[in-house]
Amino acid sequence: MNNLVEIENLRVKFNTDSGEVNAVNGISFNIKKGETLALVGESGSGKSVTARGIIRLLANNAVLSKETKITFDGKNINTYSEKEYQKIRGKKISMIFQEPMSSLNPIYTIENQISEVLKIHDKYSDKKLKAKCLELLKQVQIPEPESRLSQYPHQLSGGQRQRIMIAIAIANNPDLLIADEPTTALDVTVQTEILKLLQSLQKKYQMSILFITHDLTIVRQISDRVCVMYNGDIKETGNTKEIFDNPQDDYTKHLLSSEPEERELFYDKNGKNIITGKDLNITFNTKVKVAGRNKTLSIKAVNNISLNLQEGETLGIVGESGSGKTTLGQTLLRLIDRESNTEISGDINFFDDKIDKLSRKQFKPFRNQMQIVFQDPYASLNPRLSVKQIIEEGLIVAQNIKNKKERLDKIEHIMNEVGLEPNSMQRFPHEFSGGQRQRIAIARSFVLNPKFVLLDEPTSALDLSIQKQILELLLQLQSNYKTTYIFISHDLRVIRSISHNLIVMKDGSILEQGEAKNILNNPQNDYTKNLIKSAFEIVY
Amino acid sequence: MLSFIIRRILYSIPLLFIISILIFFIIQLPPGDYATWYVSQTKALANITQEQAIELTITLREKYGLNDPIVFQYLNWIKNIIFYFDFGFSMHYNKPVSEMLADRLPRTLIIALICHFFATTIGVTIGIYAAKNQNKLGDNIATIFAFLGMTIPRFFLALLIMYWLAIVLNSDNTGSMYSPYYAVQPMSFAKLWNGILHIWPIFAIAVLGGLAYNMRVMRGNLLDVMRMQYIETARAKGLSENQTLYRHAVPNALHPLVMFQGIALPYMLMGELEAAIVLSIPTAGPLLVESIQRQDTYTTAAILFCLTVILVIGNIIADILLAVLDPRVRQN
Amino acid sequence: MKAKNNIPNSYFSLVRKRFFANRVGILGLVFVFLLIFTAVFADFLSPYNPAGRDSDRVFYPPQGINFFDEDYNFSLRPFAYGFIEGFDPDTFEPTMEIDYSQKNYIYFFTRGWEYKFLGLNLDIHLFTTKDNSKIFLLGSDAYGRDMLSRVFKGSRVTLLFALIVVSITTVIGILVGISSGYFAGKFDIATQRITELALAFPELPLYLSLVAILPRQMDPFLVFIFMAFILSSLKWAQLSREVRGKTLSLRRLDYIKAAEALGSNDMRIIVKHLLPNVTSHVIVSVSLLIPSVILTESFFSFLGLGIQSPFVSWGLQLNSAQDLRTIGSYPWVLSPVFAILISVLGFNAFGDALRDAIDPYATTTKK
Q1: What letter does residue B187 receive in the DSSP assignment?
Q2: B104-331 sits in which CATH class?
Q3: Is the CB of A497 inside 8 Å of chain C's CB atoms?
Q4: Do B255 and B329 contact (CB within 8 A), yes or no?
Q5: CA nearest B91: which of B176, B170, B3, B27?
Q6: pLDDT digits (tens, 9 = 90+) for C310-326
Q7: What is the ipTM for the molecules in this complex?
């Protein structure tokens, strides 16, 4: 029998206040022994629910249909009682989750939490327990494993916590490992390491892995076969290579085409310099209490950076978390200096005006011309204001337009441009989807017709197909208004598809700078090479 | 860890100083002082002439040092408290205040602590039960019960209990700590039992209020914690629902509760005072009311001050407990 | 791209929907509404002048309303029987016997004692009796005053008192909390210390001391005002702490930065962006604050240290119940406690349900 798991007619419904909601509509698929099967889909596709259905960790209001049949290693586990299921959880089937920050209990040591999964399923002497914990830590390649045992989760980084989660998951040598988006919350380089780790463990233990993700790059990199899910159904199943090369289903085709593509991008190389930054240094001084005394912790967020943008150009800034890219961008817009205890030095010029030392009042007229779009469409719109009020604010404050009709006209115009119905301007943010909210945020900035817009990871929180739409919109607007962009992202594919020039940042400094094409095809720096590998290449 | 404790304590000292100043000045605010009160009482009970009254006032003032400038009086007072534990002299009872405090305060404290203990343990237990059975019958009953506990005025309860005891049961065990027989006996189990018979209403009332609060908070916390990711991790390890609940959820739910003790303890203390005042059981509460009515400055100030110190210490203990429970706070 | 339905779904309608799904909350709202209604129309609802003494009808028990008399004659107009006072020959205790000859008829919407309402002199009441007949639905007190009318009057005092305390507390709490949370820095540290100071004081003893400062002869109205100030003196601290916390968490949100990027100044950000998002929490805190104010005021009035006559407070009414024999013989003197219960329960239930209704609206990141 080649199949470790056989799933027939998996159907899950949720009982909510607004009635019954179908999450998974009777799907069927198999997981072979020793293979990595990817379950890919966008938000709402039902992939997470499917995974939880297999290990039966569904929410209280979820109803698993009686006609669902799950066969695991030849046994019919859907008829198992809760107690019987508890015996296989953590032993035969393990699961790791998306948020490493909150997946571990903050009040217990690492040793305690790893030992727990061992003690549940078998008897161990204390000595053996400790030895096994140590061995597991070494297997997941945690540096300095001995000292980690007595540490607490908050003392570890995200990547390290995820390794601990993996250690817990493989502790009892499971047959199936379910991984629910385990790398989504991690930096790209860490992501690659975790994926490599999973693959080596899989080979070693002959595990099957069910890998849930929305990231097509990961699917390409590690899966043997893939199931494409949409709206609770499986649209297509097959070998990864075949599906990517030759998709049959319409939705699959649609999904694959949403990946950011390479395109020919032009701008006027002889244009004026719109933004110049020279010798920018930004330090955060935070007061901390260390051993009872007040000390000031200085973190250098941006380290001696100079850059230069020309009108109509799109500069991509690539970096991982902590690289300083957001700090740099927001400083150019003078949004950082109000944070307590920041030291900013260096020159910033907007066209011919020196703007770094201007007071808030003096800088106000520039706000008109320099705008920003944030990453999180849920946090960047005030839930109490209507769409009209949100878009209107800039017109009132930055452009001082007193005439109501004039404002209304501009709002209607921009809403049409970004693809929103002007009729919906009386509605409130929560009535819109993520992609629509991002359009509102874009409208808010563009209604002022700014010359420069800082795009701070504007697509990172969106589904793949929506990402494509927003990118297209941004390119369209740029071509209409000749706007200059700085596009901050950690996603090289997106950057490649939209930037003329590129800056690679790490720990506050610039590692590489130049034309995007050149850097991506011919990286000089090792770090850049790593990033490119993680983004574009297959791992083994 | 030790440095944390020391820091916490040092931090409270300026706070206490400022509070002591405020207390002292507040006490001085009513027009007149003990001398005035005493003289007015004397006037009412015995017939003295106006001149005699004024003379008496002056003599009293000199005797008790009420003529010195306020700042002097304060400094004197605070110096005596810190160095000699001398809280001054109760002009009414003609005893050092420390004696009366020694009589009343420990009792108040012990009662408060015991009430606190029961309110917390029972409240937390019911809270866990309510969260486990969310929206089912058990939860609803517990919620109603909590509502009642927080809604019924405690002085009213005290009144009812007093009535029930005095009139319905015709019991003698009201209005003091011990029956006259036991009051003069040395401590023994019989005496203790007699004491409990007298003061159980205070326990009942104070615990009821504190219990309701703790239950609601625990229930809320537990429901929040159960939504956390690490609870799902625990279940994925193969833990049973109960094991998950008690090993992972409850300890994390206790944290905010510990912080919350800063509010719960004063609430309970106030409940105890309220009940004691109505039931006339000799603890700090009734003494405070008496001394306010008699303008017995030093006694009032001393009780206020001690109660504040108790609360501040309570908060410090709560902070320390939190550090013990939560490694994140400990390592800061 | 169309949005989900045809009517704009403002924040308020969302909250309203969730609130009304909670049955306990609706009950609380009903109670609160009853309280407000009673307070406003107290005089209209009261059959008799709350201050009106009647030495002939001291300590009357509550009278039931009858439509049929003892001969089963039906009377459209409801009435109550009067009482004959007598003495128990054995114990010499006073007794009340129903006097079937005395029928006190109830008239609705008729003229009764005079009162002032919104500047007008009115004398119309929901129900009262004519001539010398009286009906005491909750009995009468030691001076023959109608308990029911006094309970109604007391609601006005209670509500007004709570309102004043809440207003002062809210204004100070929001001012301090928002500016402390928004501007941070030295100002924040200073206000934090003051807040801690206020929170460290034991409430009850402080109130007792401050209340005792008020001179005995002071105008009862001034006593009322001062008491309100005294209670507010500590309660603002808790509110300001909550507001500060909420402000701090909101301040980091992107939409605040976006407003800055559009050129909004501090005042505009505070008023247009922070305040509306803080208000809902303030309303919840306030509705949960009112019960504790009512309970504290009742306790003080009960001790005789709070509201003074001629003002009527429920606590003050209970003061006369301190004598245990009174409770035994005339248990209806305790009836004002139900008014307290209903009010406190009402606000607690309302505030709780409101808190649940506004919470699920937090901005979350979906994936």
Answers
A1: P
A2: mainly alpha
A3: no
A4: no
A5: B27
A6: 788 888 888 877 777 77
A7: 0.83
